[in-house]
Specification:
By secondary structure, the protein is α+β, with helices and mostly antiparallel strands. The chain has three helices and four strands, in the order βααβββα. A hairpin with a 5-residue loop joins strand 3 and strand 4.
Length: 112
Protein backbone atom coordinates (compact mmCIF):
# COMPACT_ATOMS: atom_id res chain seq x y z
CA UNK A 1 0.00 0.00 0.00
CA UNK A 2 1.27 3.43 -0.96
CA UNK A 3 0.46 6.16 1.57
CA UNK A 4 0.32 9.79 0.45
CA UNK A 5 0.14 11.78 3.65
CA UNK A 6 -0.22 15.56 3.84
CA UNK A 7 -0.61 17.62 6.97
CA UNK A 8 -1.62 21.18 7.57
CA UNK A 9 0.23 22.87 9.18
CA UNK A 10 3.08 20.91 7.58
CA UNK A 11 5.04 20.57 10.83
CA UNK A 12 2.60 18.21 12.54
CA UNK A 13 4.81 15.54 14.09
CA UNK A 14 1.96 13.49 15.57
CA UNK A 15 1.20 11.97 12.18
CA UNK A 16 3.65 9.65 10.44
CA UNK A 17 3.26 7.09 7.66
CA UNK A 18 3.69 4.27 10.19
CA UNK A 19 1.06 5.76 12.53
CA UNK A 20 -1.43 6.03 9.67
CA UNK A 21 -0.66 2.53 8.39
CA UNK A 22 -1.26 1.05 11.87
CA UNK A 23 -4.69 2.68 12.02
CA UNK A 24 -5.62 1.47 8.52
CA UNK A 25 -4.71 -2.15 9.36
CA UNK A 26 -8.34 -3.15 10.05
CA UNK A 27 -9.56 -1.88 6.70
CA UNK A 28 -6.54 -3.46 4.96
CA UNK A 29 -7.58 -6.82 6.36
CA UNK A 30 -11.00 -6.52 4.72
CA UNK A 31 -10.08 -5.04 1.35
CA UNK A 32 -6.96 -4.65 -0.77
CA UNK A 33 -5.78 -1.04 -0.72
CA UNK A 34 -3.52 0.06 -3.55
CA UNK A 35 -3.09 3.64 -2.33
CA UNK A 36 -4.20 5.70 0.66
CA UNK A 37 -4.47 9.47 0.30
CA UNK A 38 -4.64 10.96 3.79
CA UNK A 39 -4.99 14.66 4.55
CA UNK A 40 -4.80 15.76 8.19
CA UNK A 41 -5.59 19.37 9.04
CA UNK A 42 -5.67 21.29 12.28
CA UNK A 43 -7.85 24.39 12.22
CA UNK A 44 -6.91 26.32 15.35
CA UNK A 45 -9.83 28.75 14.99
CA UNK A 46 -12.47 26.02 14.51
CA UNK A 47 -14.15 23.66 16.89
CA UNK A 48 -13.59 20.77 16.52
CA UNK A 49 -10.10 21.56 15.33
CA UNK A 50 -8.93 18.29 13.74
CA UNK A 51 -10.08 17.23 10.29
CA UNK A 52 -9.11 13.93 8.65
CA UNK A 53 -9.80 13.08 5.01
CA UNK A 54 -9.01 9.57 3.76
CA UNK A 55 -9.39 8.35 0.18
CA UNK A 56 -8.60 4.68 -0.36
CA UNK A 57 -7.88 3.54 -3.90
CA UNK A 58 -9.12 -0.05 -4.15
CA UNK A 59 -10.12 -2.50 -6.87
CA UNK A 60 -13.67 -1.49 -7.71
CA UNK A 61 -15.18 1.63 -6.19
CA UNK A 62 -12.84 3.70 -4.03
CA UNK A 63 -13.64 4.54 -0.41
CA UNK A 64 -13.56 8.10 0.93
CA UNK A 65 -14.57 9.82 4.16
CA UNK A 66 -14.01 13.14 5.92
CA UNK A 67 -14.43 13.57 9.68
CA UNK A 68 -13.77 16.19 12.34
CA UNK A 69 -13.21 15.88 16.07
CA UNK A 70 -11.51 17.55 19.01
CA UNK A 71 -8.46 15.25 19.01
CA UNK A 72 -6.49 13.75 16.16
CA UNK A 73 -6.95 10.20 17.46
CA UNK A 74 -10.72 10.64 17.74
CA UNK A 75 -11.03 12.15 14.25
CA UNK A 76 -8.96 9.34 12.75
CA UNK A 77 -10.93 6.65 14.62
CA UNK A 78 -14.20 8.22 13.51
CA UNK A 79 -12.97 8.23 9.91
CA UNK A 80 -11.95 4.55 10.05
CA UNK A 81 -15.40 3.78 11.48
CA UNK A 82 -17.06 5.54 8.55
CA UNK A 83 -14.90 3.64 6.06
CA UNK A 84 -15.83 0.34 7.75
CA UNK A 85 -19.52 1.32 7.65
CA UNK A 86 -19.19 1.93 3.89
CA UNK A 87 -17.56 -1.50 3.51
CA UNK A 88 -20.33 -3.14 5.58
CA UNK A 89 -23.01 -1.53 3.42
CA UNK A 90 -21.31 -2.64 0.20
CA UNK A 91 -20.89 -6.20 1.48
CA UNK A 92 -24.55 -6.33 2.54
CA UNK A 93 -25.63 -5.01 -0.85
CA UNK A 94 -23.48 -7.59 -2.64
CA UNK A 95 -24.81 -10.39 -0.42
CA UNK A 96 -28.37 -9.29 -1.19
CA UNK A 97 -27.72 -9.51 -4.93
CA UNK A 98 -26.29 -13.02 -4.64
CA UNK A 99 -28.94 -14.38 -2.32
CA UNK A 100 -30.45 -17.68 -3.48
CA UNK A 101 -34.04 -17.07 -4.55
CA UNK A 102 -34.76 -20.76 -5.19
CA UNK A 103 -35.51 -22.35 -8.52
CA UNK A 104 -37.02 -20.03 -11.05
CA UNK A 105 -39.92 -21.15 -13.20
CA UNK A 106 -39.38 -21.65 -16.87
CA UNK A 107 -40.59 -18.81 -19.11
CA UNK A 108 -43.06 -21.15 -20.80
CA UNK A 109 -44.91 -21.59 -17.47
CA UNK A 110 -46.10 -17.97 -17.73
CA UNK A 111 -47.49 -18.34 -21.25
CA UNK A 112 -51.03 -19.29 -21.13
Amino acid sequence: MIINLTTSPPVLTEVTHEWAEERLAGVCGRRRIDEAVIRVSRHAEASPAWEVYIHLVTPGPDLAATTRDHTLAAAFAKNIGELEDILDAREAKRAGRHRDHGPSSAPSAHIG
